[in-house]
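S2.1 Query sequence (ABC-2 type transporter transmembrane domain-containing protein)
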Amino acid sequence: MLYYLTGLTKGPDRFAYFVVNLCMCTLLVESMMMIIAVIVPDFLMGIIVGAGVQGVMMLNGGFFRLPNELPKPVWKYPCYYISFHKYAVQGFYKNEFIGQTFPSDQLVEKNVTISGLRVLQEKLQVEMGYSKWVNIAILCGMMVLYRVMFFAIVKIAEEVRPKLRGMRCKLCK
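Output structure tokens follow.
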């Protein structure tokens, strides 16, 4: 319902992509918060750290600042490419703009249009070397990677925490 109320491009394939993109983002946020929950000592600290990590990722995702405007040393390389928001936003843009035409803002001639592809390349600075479905595949791969990282951290914590407690008890005596 929200998709059509906001005036997004109509079509079952575009709607399906939107839903898949939204679900992948939800799974990625959940996976990242699972990793953070294992690492931090209590839930309040987890919420704070998770919100901070999400905030940094959103700021570097290409929505608030265009990719060419990001400072290069840290914010673009590696933060921009690590942020899953980059792939979600670029996939969303490709889903909405490819195949569309818009009235141009140039006052030279009337009835001049600009293609959605040109908007993506020039105005939004979207990487056009791959399709929107590759963005979904990258998001899926990131989700699997986050889940594997979560599993590895849980297994390492199972081994390390009892040893740390034992060392702490020996130091207290």
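DSSP finds seven helices and two strands in the chain. The mean pLDDT is 91.
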